Task: inverse folding
């Protein structure tokens, strides 16, 4: 496991104040996956499970963090936006959980960075799973765009 720069999470909570209230415990790299450990408590709905909008919002945020951190690693921070996304729940989230984000296309990361270097913008498709007790309960797919400076 590789820790995310210790300044990133405090910066994120300042840049996007809502993130202070979403139950984010930790953000770290696990190989090529960016993982986020989360507390269920701030996301509980009237049924005692994770509120769907909150879970989807966290997935969107994790993808945004993935692209932002990837660009930071290459000294290319720029505005990043989500272009499109879809999600699917397969089980209710009933306990603290983790989200895992990765790029399925091995050449996708290199291609994204090359396009960004050449054209000043690029897009990247990411996959995210929310897991509780080792089992997937939610799937997300999103396309993110780095807009250049």
Result:
């Amino acid at each position: 496991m590789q820790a995310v720069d210790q300044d990133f999470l405090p910066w994120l909570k300042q840049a996007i104040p809502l993130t202070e209230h979403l139950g984010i415990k930790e953000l770290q790299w696990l190989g090529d996956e960016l993982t986020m450990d989360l507390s269920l408590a701030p996301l509980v709905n009237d049924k005692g499970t994770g509120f769907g909008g909150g879970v989807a919002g966290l997935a969107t945020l994790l993808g945004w963090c993935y692209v932002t951190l990837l660009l930071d690693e290459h000294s290319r921070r720029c505005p990043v936006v989500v272009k499109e996304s879809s999600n699917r729940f397969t089980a209710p989230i009933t306990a603290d959980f983790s989200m895992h984000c990765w790029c399925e296309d091995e050449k996708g990361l290199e291609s994204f960075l090359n396009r960004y270097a050449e054209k000043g913008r690029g897009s990247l498709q990411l996959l995210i799973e929310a897991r509780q007790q080792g089992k997937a309960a939610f799937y997300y797919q999103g396309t993110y765009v780095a807009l250049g400076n």
About this structure: The chain is about 30% helix and 35% strand. The CA atoms of residues 124 and 144 lie 5 Å apart. The first helix runs from residue 8 to 15. The mean pLDDT is 92.
